[in-house]
Amino acid sequence: MSIAAAMAMRTRLSALSDSPELDVSLLLCRCIDKPRSYLYSWPERELTAEQQQQFLQFLARRIAGEPIAHILGERDFWSLPLAVSPLTLIPRPDTECLVERALEMLTGHENPLILDLGTGTGAIALALASERADAEVLASDFSSEVVALAQRNRDALGLTNLQLVCSNWFSDIPRKRFNLIVSNPPYIDPDDPHLSQGDVRFEPMSALVAAEGGMADLRCIIQESPNYLVTGGELLLEHGYDQGELVRQALSERGFTQVASQLDYGGNERISWGRWQ
Ligand code: GLN
């Protein structure tokens, strides 16, 4: 089988994936250990028998619905290659909006102390730690296996300014005052029909779903954060496309000021924040 023939098998994914060409090219690149540009420069090259067998196995897994990130065991976030596992959320491009906003909020603060709650792969914490060498980042997850995964990602990237702790939201966070608290908590309504479609079927419910129509964990974080923020510190949250108003309301009711939201790349309200005065 040639590279071009393998690429043509993207049609097998058209019913299932929004990005069949990207999916097939990522699987193929892994099998032949070459960058994506190679696929377009050398379409006539033949796969070895071993490469072809692996490609067909990967493709069968994708056709069965498995996310590309799980098949490859890896996903890039903020241009950092991160190991992923079925125990965590697969990092999403929209969450990079939260990183961008966090970096803007930290402009002018030297040596900021940052807390990332429910870090999963460590995506947000690692992006911030890599951009701000002067920052001290603490990231938590309630699962010790997930903490170990985030630690492996940190060590693979050689970042030394990130510490990890096993904690159920604030239960085991040291009593410190942070300049910025960030989180992408579970926020999907348990009755949301999207939970039975596409890649999310392979992600853990614990990382996706929250009670109270998806608001329970967001509310818990908003309630507790002021006990862990310096005066003038900020809380920055990712939330569902239709939760902006509820999150702004919860932030204002708790006493946060300068409450605002921002859209994601798809034009939906996706992040909101407030300042603790
Ligand atoms: N944005 C994700 C989705 O819609 C959910 C992420 C989350 O619950 N934190 O699939």
Fold blueprint:
Elements: H1 3-8, H2 20-32, H3 36-41, H4 49-63, H5 68-72, E1 74-77, E2 80-83, H6 95-106, E3 113-117, H7 123-131, E4 136-141, H8 144-157, E5 162-166, E6 178-183, H9 205-208, H10 216-224, E7 229-238, H11 244-254, E8 257-263, E9 269-276
Parallel strand pairs: 3-4, 3-6, 4-5, 6-7
Antiparallel strand pairs: 1-2, 7-9, 8-9
Q: Which key terms come to mind for this protein?
A:
single chain, 277 residues, alpha/beta, Helicase, Ruva Protein, domain 3, Rossmann fold, 2 domains, 7-stranded mixed beta sheet, 9 strands, elongated
Structure report:
Residues 10-73 form the Release factor glutamine methyltransferase N-terminal domain. Residues 104-189 form the Methyltransferase small domain. One of its GO terms (molecular function) is peptide chain release factor N(5)-glutamine methyltransferase activity. Substrate binds at residues 184-187. Its EC number is 2.1.1.297. With 277 residues, the chain is an alpha/beta fold. The protein has 2 domains: 3-65, Ubiquitin-associated (UBA) domain (Helicase, Ruva Protein, domain 3, Orthogonal Bundle); 87-275, Vaccinia Virus protein VP39 (Rossmann fold, 3-Layer(aba) Sandwich), CATH 3.40.50.150. It is 38% helix and 20% strand. The protein has 11 helices and 9 strands. The protein has a 7-stranded mixed sheet, sandwiched between helices. Strands 1-2 form a two-stranded antiparallel sheet. Helix 6 (95-106) runs parallel beside helix 7 and helix 10 (216-224) runs parallel beside helix 11 (244-254). It starts with a helix and ends with a strand. Bound molecules: glutamine. Residues 89, 92, 184, 186-188, 200, 208 line the site of glutamine (GLN).
